[in-house]
Amino acid sequence: MSTRLAKGGRLIDRAKPLNFTFNDKPLRGYAGDTLASALLGAGQVMLGRSFKYHRPRGLVASGVEEPNALVGLGRNARFEPDQRTTTTELFEGAETRSQNHWPSLDFDVGEINDKLYKFFPAGFYYKTFMFPRFAWKHLFEPIVRQSAGLGGVPREADVDRYEQAYAYTDVLVAGGGVAGLAAALREARTGKRVMVLEQTPHWGGRAPVDGGQIDGQAAADWISNAVQTLEGMDNVTLRTRTMLAGLHDHGYAIGYQSVGDATPGDGRPRHRLWRIRAGLTITATGAIERPLAFAGNDVPGVMLAGAVRDYIVNWGVSPGDRTVIVTNNDDAYRTALAVLDAGLTVAAVIDAREHASGPLAQKLRERGVRVLEGRGIAKVHGRKAVTGVAICAQAGEGGVVEQIACDCVAMSGGWSPVVHLWSHCGGKLTWDNTHAMFRPDPDRPPLGDAGQPLARAVGAANGLLTLPEIMAEADLPAVAEPEAPLAPVWVMPAGAKEALKFKSFLDYQNDVKVSDVQLAAREGYESVEHTKRYTTLGMATDQGKLSNINGLAVLSDALGQPIPATGTTTFRPPYTPISFGAIAAEARGEIFQPLRRTPMHAWHESHGVAWEPVGLWRRPYTYPRTGESHRTAVNREITNTRSNVGLLDASTLGKILVKGPDAGRFLDLMYTNMMSTLPVGKCRYGLMCNDNGFLMDDGVVVRLSEDSWLCHTTSGGADRIHGHMEDWLQCEWWDFKVYTANLTEQFAQVAVVGPKARLLLEKLGGMDVSAEALPFMTFAEGTLGGFDARVFRISFSGELSYEIAVPAAQGLAFWQALHDAGAEFGAMPYGTEALHVMRAEKGFIMIGDESDGTVIPQDLGLSWAISKKKADYIGKRAQERSHMTDPDRWQLVGLETLDGLVLPDGVYAVADGYNANGQRHTQGRVTSTYFSPTLGRGIAMGLVKHGPARMGEVLDFPADKGAVIKARIVDPVFYDKEGKKQNV
Amino acid sequence: MLTLQCPYCGARVEETELAPGGEAHLKRFGPGSSDADFESYMFARKNPKGVHFERWRHAYGCGKWFLAARCTATLEVFGTYPAQTTEPPADLIAKIKEKRPTWEGYK
User: N or C of chain A: less Cβ packing under 10 Å?
Assistant: First the structure.
């Protein structure tokens, strides 16, 4: 059983004990512990169950590659599932909970899956849940959903804070081990700006555990001197607890910093996401040890040899009293020495190689440890903890030659360089046969914007696995015991029978075994990317860090090809999972996106407004009074506007100034109708299409002067349309002398609408607003009640209407003045819903309702607004295509329900017959539908095949629950067809 | 995330400051053109693995459209230049040919 040693542990502070819980059991660790070392030190060997078979699982690793020991951490608004215990620092009061079991960790019903393993092979889901078809929705899916997922879902909103920061650096060093520090020192001495990121809280990487000498000093001393030197340099930034999560295009890199993870609630952000732009990224990300694939290699107590050494040396934790080492290389012997130095027992070293004669092996023999050569593990005994191992010949089929009792197995299958960052942005790998590993190919690095290499790999990440090699790269002398070459071992024993391979795990978290990968190969999965998805190898939250190479090797063997011919799956960022909080950072809640406010925003808010989001704007939907529903309020606003006077905040309307000698010519191309002939002081309604012919925006264009036009756009379209104009001006007609400016926010605009509108403006006074001086569709500039005003006689409601623009700074005061002066005329504000209803009563189209990117102006009865005289306008050629001139296109009509009720929005009119899918043929659809208080009935607009020629016909509109609503085709203008009211 | 040099304001800008505009050097076909020409202008787009000419707007900066020559496979940027031209600058073409001897040209 694992335990805390009486002494040792270079990272822990025994003077600072910390209390925490595991499944509500109170436990104790020390400052400097990870959750993993604290749990292991407290005797907790079994920490969870596997995903598919619910097998008991414990720690395998001591770092980011850990697949098993994930826990739920915290509670309520600070609960987070799937937290990797090996990379989470212990803190006082931490609450941890194991996952993947019911009802308890010790007794789990799902464990039955493990007995049924033969029925859960690779591709089980694809093979099983196909038939009968109906069973998926009602039977299989609910069961799969119940058992899917790792940890539980947080039920409350995250109360923590997250932030993002930007950094620019000449050199970014990922990894603060000896290779990273040496590279940082070199680069920093040239005067470049250097930033070094280290994912753990400590500098030096593995070197302090593995030992050796650098530049005549003990590795640990060299590290502290190097860090001290770097800290003293102004051009160097050092950050621990910060992982480089991804390396992207042109040296863009994402750093993920743990800030307040271990101090919840102290007000600091929990995580900080660094958005870094680096000239050169040096990947000093080290290497990850590979497990060996033998039966029972997942029993709690079977761990990576390097991890066993880490727990002993770093945290003073013994993973077991009696350890068996199983290896194919010399490095694992360092673990045997560490176990002995801690006063514990090494039962034996099982070396798969025929000869173990390196200096490390000799050293161990001298200390009286048995070294078995050419041997392997046939089987691990024990279920919730290791009780012993059965030994066999590595070259055989698994015949047991000896039993050895032990409570810990330290395995090593060699090391794989961490090539993720190198590969994220296109760096290529090469296969290193000597060390049986993929390493970065220095001739094919990821490239930057000038075609220069944007990354360089150093140290173990570059495939240099011994201290002297690593330091030689930085021209520093170093000493460590020489290592004999490893022998690749992908399956143990080499001729393992099915029964053994069924329990030899490759991907621990997803329960992928040697037998699964071999089955996939037999079933024809030859591409490594396909095999990955079929077997789920490498798809767990460790993303194959632990044993993807083992899986590739097994697949290659089954396919009878060398490993480099199989290749690797794609390495994708982030390197390890990063929190959604850090990605979203401050962009949540009210500041998820910017809020645009009109100058009258505060007035609306203090007058009981109900808001409607329009793009980034908030517009008043209606102003309900006490006791009023939105519907009643809208009806009141409409009735008042049609009988007295209504005031609308129209400031969001797009206002683009187009000016210059060629402005008229340019607008003739932008709009379907003629704008160059518009007299000064006149207004004209215009339509804008894209070059594919479809309607994209509409609005009233005003000629302000000889060379300036003011183009009104829809509220949501101002920026887009301005961009559209600039695109054509800059990229197609750059010889035109035209200047555009988006003045939307420079003016507040108010629509003064209704039969008493003129009375109100005359009361304000300052300029002549009479029908004679300012007739319908004209414009004048002057003052109204002392405000500088541009007055447009335009109407979107069918009533007498003035739209008045004043400088934005005067907007609120002008709005207030209108209300003060308008009280005697019954002036009331109205919102967007009243606006919509009134425009629909008049049969005016709304971009986004009647148009949807597939509609051309000709569909909407707007041919009158399309110039026949112009040689060209944007969209003209497209509108000449046969489908655009097809008389069968659906056309705009009005619709009146026979029962007077309101049609549902978007419903379709059915035609006779059925299509190939058994659905009714359609002949039209509803585009806008409202209750008209003016008419006291539902009104709608829609597009109907041959619609204008079918006035009076009744169509069927199937709605919810089998109901069929009947509506008659009518003229889309429901109110004041002659237009008398607006032109007075 | 790419960085491109805006040829107008000279700034080397992040992709988040830019708006993409698709393939560059398209010839517009308007009224009177054949269906085939219009179709090719409106819909047919190159999708090369290699050298590509594209339109970008410095949307959150100076607002200007510019053109860029870029390798879609390695993300190397050969150059950027103002949009007011019907063909890439000769020196840029020479530079690309030097770096990509098998390149067949932009048309």
Answer: C
Two tokens, residue B3: 């960085």
Domain boundaries of chain A, sorted by first residue: 3-112, 887-984
Residues in chain B: 107
Q: Establish if B22 touches chain A: CB-CB under 8 angstroms.
A: no
CA distance A723 to chain B (A): 9
The pTM score is: 0.91
pLDDT of residue A146: 60
- Residue B69 in contact with residue B51, Cβ under 8 Å? yes
CATH top-level class of B3-25+35-99 = alpha beta
- Torsion angle of alpha carbons B22, B24, B25, B31, nearest 10°? 20
Nearest CA in chain B to A735: B84
The shortest CB-CB distance from A727 to any of B29, B65, B75 is to: B65
Residues of B in contact with A450 (CB under 8 A): 76-77
> Are the CB atoms for A603 and A750 separated by under 8 Å?
no
CB pairs under 8 A between A and B: 73
A189-225 per-position pLDDT tens digit: 999 999 999 999 999 999 999 999 999 999 999 999 9
Residues of chain A that touch chain B, judged by Cβ-Cβ distance less than 8 Å: 248-250, 252, 277, 425-426, 447-451, 691-692, 723, 726-727, 730-732, 734, 871-872, 876-878, 880-881
Q: What is the pLDDT of residues A298-325, one digit of tens each?
A: 999 999 999 999 999 999 999 999 999 9
Instruction: Give A3-112's CATH code, choosing from 3.40.109.10, 3.90.230.10, 3.10.20.440, 3.20.20.70.
Output: 3.10.20.440
A736 → chain B, closest CA residue: B84
Please name the fold of domain A887-984. Answer: Elongation Factor Tu (Ef-tu); domain 3 (2.40.30)
The ranges assigned to domains in chain B are 3-25+35-99
Reduce the DSSP state of residue A386 to 3 states and report it. Answer: coil
Q: Name the amino acid, one letter, at A49.
A: R
Q: Can you read off the two tokens belonging to residue A400?
A: 């047991």
